[in-house]
Design goal:
This protein is an alpha+beta fold. 46% of the residues lie in helices and 14% in strands. It contains 6 helices and 4 strands. It has a 4-stranded mixed β-sheet, with helices on one face. A hairpin with a 2-residue loop joins strand 3 (94-97) and strand 4 (100-103). Helix 2 (39-47) packs across helix 4 (76-85). The longest helix has 16 residues, at 115-130. The radius of gyration is 16 Å and the shape is elongated. The relative contact order is 0.19.
């Protein structure tokens, strides 16, 4: 099952949700503002990254710049606590499938991320169109 982490005001999140629905992919939703992640959940997401904190945090956002912090000097425990207090800094949307994590909406990356499921759906659509 796919876990879809989003915020309602996020345009990329809305695009990703439409993409998931258009491709009939089942998912569960997690609103990051209505139900903030715990430090443990943030640690679990961090463990799924390829590049560590930079895969999860939006350092170019104005919210991050306003905080004027250096996350590179933080321990993992400090970082997870910091993010639990500032969920607006997380890249969005976040999609989790088993041990895999996809941050931000990019249609080409989603096709690759869901390659097997995507190919199965494309095959079914092709068969339906031919019939």
């Amino acid at each position: 099952m796919i876990k879809f982490y989003y915020t309602p005001s996020c345009t990329s999140c809305r695009k990703a949700k439409v993409w998931l629905e258009n491709h009939n992919l089942e998912y569960t939703e997690h609103n990051l503002f209505a139900d903030p992640l715990t430090e443990e959940e943030i640690g679990e997401l961090l463990a799924k990254t390829e590049n560590g904190t930079e895969d999860l945090i939006s350092t170019r956002s104005q919210a991050f710049k306003n905080l004027n912090v250096n996350v590179e000097d933080m321990t993992v425990k400090e970082w997870t606590k910091f993010i639990s207090q500032h969920p607006e800094l997380l890249r969005r949307p976040l999609l989790v499938k088993g041990p895999q994590l996809q941050a931000v909406f990019n249609e080409d990356q989603l096709r690759s991320f869901f390659s097997r499921e995507y190919r199965q759906i494309e095959l079914q659509e092709t068969k339906s169109a031919v019939a």
